[in-house]
Amino acid sequence: MIGAWLGVAPALWAGYTWGSQLLALVGRRRGDSAQPVAALTFDDGPDPVHTPRVLDILEREGVRGSFFLIGRRAAAAPEVARRIAAEGHDLGNHTWSHRSLWAMSPAETRHQIGRGHEAIATAAGRPPRFFRPPWGMTNFAMFGALRRLGTPCVFWTVQPEGRRAADPDRQVERTARRVAHGAILDLHDADGVPGAGARLVEALPRLIELLRRRGYALAPLRDLL
Ligand SMILES: [Zn+2]
Question: Ligand 1 centre from 137 Cα, in Å?
Fold first, then answer.
């Protein structure tokens, strides 16, 4: 199907992928740049081991964050998803099974987004309020699916650990360098990159300490955006 598209309609294909990416970047949401506020966001969970430890840290520090859950992981660990919701954190949808939307058909895109949304709502007892595409990769069909669900797409402005492992020192150093008013930090409380959850448990108290020392208030996305 992808091959046929590329052969028949390269312009359509470019619009569907690159065009959507451009549109998403132009419309990217971020917090008010006049206020010293930042949002901690957590992707790829819930993880039955590391997410509860992250929640313990947030509870101890009195911080509310935003969790972009993978639908099938929420279905496998509903007690963790419920705890995230019960403790006042925002819920976001990170698709059903964390596949890149980039080369995905419209029907499969609707399925990935819709099934993820439903699975998170069922597991947590509350529907997700935001959406983040895996690796930030979009396609045009995504926008219609998100409009129907009323869940805006939210990217990030600082990524302490991306596609490669970054030890806690490096995560703190990157954050110190890149944080600005209205920042959205993209953290990972579960694998993607192996070991991400364990590294975050170590880095998170230091990240919170750094941000507070710089005068930032930490807010969930519902307050930042
Ligand atoms: Zn992800």
Answer: 10
Cα(121) to centroid(ligand 1), Å: 18
Does the annotation count 43 as an active-site position? yes
Residue 180 structure tokens: 């600005």
| Neighbouring residues of 75: CB distance < 8 A, sequence distance ≥ 6 | 119, 122, 123
167 is catalytic: no
pTM: 0.93
CA separation for the pair 51, 201 (Å, rounded): 9
Catalytic residue among 43, 44, 186, 189: 43
CA of 6 to the centre of ligand 1 (A): 27
Active-site position among 47, 94, 188, 189: 188
Q: How far is the CA of 14 from the centre of ligand 1 (A)?
A: 24
Per-residue pLDDT for the chain (225 aa), expressed as one digit of tens each?
A: 566 555 667 888 888 888 888 888 877 777 777 889 999 999 999 999 999 999 999 999 999 999 999 999 999 999 999 999 999 999 999 999 999 999 899 999 999 999 999 999 999 999 999 999 999 999 999 999 999 999 999 999 999 998 999 999 999 999 999 999 999 999 999 999 999 999 999 999 999 999 999 999 999 999 999
Residue 139 CA, distance from chain mean position: 17
SS3 139: coil
Query: Looking at this protein, which amino acid is placed at residue 176?
Result: A
Going from the Cα of 43 to the center of ligand 1, the distance in angstroms, rounded, reads 5
